Amino acid sequence: MTVDTRALLRPARVPDPGILEGPRVLRRLSEGVESRPYDLFTLRPLGRVIGAEIEGVDLARPLTAPLRAELNRALLEWKVLFFRDQDITSEHQRAFARNWGELETNPLLPKGNSDEVTRFARDARMPAFENIWHTDVTFRPNPALGSVLRLVRVPPQGGDTMWADMAAAYDNLPAGVRERITGLRAVHDFVPGFVRFSDPEFLAARQAEFPPVEHPVVRTHPETGRRTLFVNPAFTTHIVGLPREESDELLRLLFVQAHVPEFQVRFRWTENAVAFWDNRATQHYAVNDYAPHARIAERVAIAGDRPY
């Protein structure tokens, strides 16, 4: 009996793009941009397309214009920057973030010592719900430009955070899918992301303040010009103009792109470590594997612009 090996290689259905095996398109920089060295600090890459540690910068000190410019270039090229051994205060954290714009407030989440600081205090009594791939506050007309996160208390094990490069996620979609989603818009709503841990009265009271908004499914980064996939399972509810079943199927296909390890970086927190990420280019996921130990983090977000 002769076995038709070609038939064995034909799948029963076409798998989602995110789980296709084989080579990936791993392009870190925009077309025509060449990698250049950094003069004012040492940069150590942690991944092929995303994530780098910065050494030689003290976040407690004001940034000079040249240092701010070089850090911004690193942020655009690596999407998330990590700074270890930063014994800073909340005031230092806010001052550093203000180098990139006005700070955002979020009345939906617990505050730290300022309206501009969000405090995530998680332990066995207060479980975490950030272990879903998401981009921050996409339910707002102008989602955050970026965020600066520091851990006030690091658990003895676990509690890592992961980030995914959504430009790489877009680049690796099949050409037919990229063509299909060009020009599409999706609705983002805070309710799906908060309903798991908020009471109905709280949700109802905030819906007038945060009504659903529309954003492009594919966003153009305002500084790099790169096209990034801009939907996430925490806040994106449906694609405008598509029947619900078709919208759900397409969104599931797009959501899974963030799950590809080649597009990710995983950061192990240590005492006095700080992460600064570009919210326009990434999704992130807080790994919930540290219970019953406490994990306390404070985040400052930088106000952004309307996606296009």
Automatic annotation (TrEMBL):
Keyword Methyltransferase: no
Pfam families on file: TauD
Keywords noted in UniProt: Dioxygenase, Iron, Metal-binding, Oxidoreductase
Domain TauD/TfdA-like, chain residue ranges per copy: 43-299
Source species, domain of life: Bacteria
A GO molecular-function descriptor: taurine dioxygenase activity
Entry's Gene Ontology BP terms: sulfur compound metabolic process
Cellular component terms (Gene Ontology): cytoplasm
UniProt similarity note: Belongs to the TfdA dioxygenase family.
Protein name: Taurine dioxygenase
Species in which this protein is naturally found: Amycolatopsis sacchari
Lineage: Bacteria, Bacillati, Actinomycetota, Actinomycetes, Pseudonocardiales
